Amino acid sequence: MTEQRPHTSTMSTPPPAPIRWPAEAIWEAVAPLLPGFTVEVLPTVDSTNTELMRRFRAAGPAAAEPVLLVAEQQSAGRGRRGRAWQSRTGDSLTFSLGMALQPADWSGLSLAVGISIAESLQPQVPATDQPRIRLKWPNDLWLADAQGERKLAGILVETASWGELRYVVIGVGINVRTLALTPAPQLDDQPAALAPAALQDILPGIDVAQALALVAAPLVQAVQAFGLFGFAPFQARFAARDALAGRAVQLSDGTEGMAHGVGENGALLVHTAAGMKEITSSEVSVRPVFPGSARPC
Ligand code: BTN
Questions:
Q1: 132, 150, 241, 287: which is the annotated catalytic residue?
Q2: 18 C-alpha to center of ligand 1: Å?
Q3: What letter would DSSP give residue 7?
């Protein structure tokens, strides 16, 4: 007699489909403009910024060839001001662009990067409309929707020198699918109760590979333009998406004022009781003050 077992079907989750990164298409678009350019995808790394800086510090000029390093997963992603940047394979696009750069003035580079990413993700905005993807000085992209403004992406720009050679690493993290992290990550300048925004909120169905295809080549061009002309040509484009302009803000030292856009060098202009202040340090945190809130968030 054979033993009769009740039939059970095990509901195991199938492994996620491999991500089809558009490495070749990006290389074909960028290499003619940037000789030596390569695209590299790693299944996992501590942080794409850390990895590129490590390579440059170890080998200097030999590791300064332009590279777009994409990580499917970061185990120690970094945000600004020493914060962690949490991400999950398939939910978040995490990459860094490393290249030698010699601008006459570095101020405003992270703003130029933000402009490029925002315009790539939401290019056509009728002049009468407020763009939904906005720039929160100096390094954040926000998405505006019925829930208010929530962080969509962050930028971490780091530089290193080897003799006369200046090397820049531009790290970008974009929330593509709603992050299901526990506990919800505490993101810069955003109330804890609000989950971060996701690109799929504005581009339904987009995945991390498609998001990279949209942003990568325009980003390289923007960085090259910044290297030649600095921030000035980006100023009006920033103004079109400036999330803080005309709003009450509070600086990390407690000073309050009204944001008045950015200057030619990318400095944030804040009208305070003591007059107009130019905020240049990205280490200064700026928070919009929401009317009626007990504390700015
Ligand atoms: C911030 O908003 O504080 C900046 C976040 C930057 C995150 C990106 S993800 C790719 C790159 N590698 C990192 O470790 N950080 C940047």
A1: 287
A2: 23
A3: P
